[in-house]
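If you are new to this repository, start here. Below is one unmodified record pulled from the training split, so you can see the exact layout before writing a loader.
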Amino acid sequence: MKKLAIAGTGLALLCMVLLAGSAFGAEKKDPLAAWKPKFDPSGAEYTYILSNVSHPAIEGVAVGYHIRDKVWERSGGRLYVDFRPLGQLGGEKDVITKIKLGAVQGMLSSSVAAANVADKLGVVNLPYVVDTFDKLDTFRNTPELFDPFKNSAMSQGIMVVDITGYGTYGWATTTPVRSLDDAKKVNFRIAEAPVNTDIYKAWSLKFTVMPWHDVPQALSTGVINGLDHTPIVCNITKKFEVAKYFTRVDYAQGLFVHLMNKRWFDGLPADLQKILLETIAEESAKTRAATREQQAAQIADAKSKGIEFISLSEESRQKLIEKAAPVYDTWGEKIGDDYLKKVRTTLEN
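And here is the target side for that same chain:
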């Protein structure tokens, strides 16, 4: 009887574990289920693998799916854009290497990572150059500005096709930053990009270079107490659950730069080349407009949850521009002084 009781208890425990495991499995949902294609791509003649590290809840990322569906329709099912967000193909530095090799054909690269591909791509990250939605549209739609930008990585076999975005950069912090003196007390996480490092050194602010996937734990444990990012990303990825303040520094637009392997593109039939480029241009333009609306909506949502938004004074803004003088000089040499001057002059006017 004792053995039977023990066996019965063991069986009951096993059943509980199995049931718990089943419940856990049932709760685990595919985060990309809503974006699955409504067509069977298996019959496509050509496949364009397109990578991104972020979530398609961000308009500048969701564009990958819009491009996928429109290209499929226009090509009559001949070309399938296999979009892989959420870092499915690896981190940005790894994917850039894969694009150069042709193992991945395309990437919506963050602008900060894109500066590692070609120095000229760093122009959009410089402080107070392409810092507003209007300036971004002007930059994209002015051939004298955009053509040198999109051709800058050709020597590495990479085309720059277009750009989308994820909002305007500022500071999400655990304590309010109302002045530059307040900012000096914060340890900001910045992206793994040479431009950002130079900017924060010039601003004399404390910073930690950190991969994006390490941010949640570092922020919650106090390793960092500030985040250099945009309201859209901070709200959607729940960084505002820890960082309850956002200072509107508005020094740059967060961008996704659409990179493409040129050899793969050259191997496409001419009609598919035309369909792909035209679709990317159309959907990217729509997305840039949608990003303006998304930023306003995400800020309103964050405010409704108690997040305080603080505007940096014009005096502080001017100080940041003055302190960034060495950055303009250094990067002017890298990307071309004449080109940088043309970009700044055109956008200011």
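Two things worth knowing about this chain: The longest strand covers residues 158-168. The chain has two domains: 34-167+254-303, 170-252+307-348.
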